[in-house]
Write a structure and sequence with these properties.
- The chain is built from 6 helices and 4 strands.
- The chain has helices spanning 13-22, 41-48, 56-61, 76-88, 99-109, 122-132; strands spanning 4-9, 29-35, 68-71, 95-97.
- The chain has a 4-stranded parallel sheet with strand order 2-1-3-4, sandwiched between helices.
Length: 139
């Protein structure tokens, strides 16, 4: 199987658990860098495992060395900035995976373990979309 080079942005409770799983022996992902500005247990875990802790710009600068960036911040602003930086560098190769996609990957690699659910439910997100007047997509 193909190994994928990833970066993780956001090492709070969800990001830490996701990092732990990717560090396990059966993972087909190699964590090349993480971005966490606060002093969290996830940041410490990355440092203990020799994973570079960098800022967003440094992750973007890694270019084709990163296949997928997992954005686990839950912050739309971070996601927007990340996408803008990728466009500015003309990086059309690296994909950004939001938390929802990280949960899908988690179900494929984690067996019976559960990723913490700290975010909003699908119904809450839909209600906010209706209140904000954002375009809706089927699903």
């Amino acid at each position: 199987m193909e190994n994928h080079n990833i970066a993780i942005i956001g090492l709070g409770r969800i990001g830490k658990v996701f990092l732990e799983k990717t560090l396990s022996s059966g993972s087909m992902m190699t964590v090349k860098a993480v971005c966490e500005m606060c002093d969290t247990p996830g940041r410490k875990l990355a440092q203990e495992n020799g994973i570079p802790v960098v800022d967003l710009a440094e992750i973007v600068d890694m270019g084709l060395k990163i296949d997928v960036i997992f954005d686990l911040t839950g912050d739309r602003n971070v996601s927007r900035i990340l996408h803008e930086k990728l466009v500015q560098t003309r990086n059309t190769y690296t994909q950004v995976a939001p938390e929802r996609l990280a949960r899908l990957v988690w179900t494929l690699i984690a067996g019976d373990d559960y990723l913490p659910n700290l975010g909003k439910s699908k119904a809450q997100i839909y209600a906010e979309m209706l209140l904000e007047g954002e375009p809706q997509s089927g699903g």
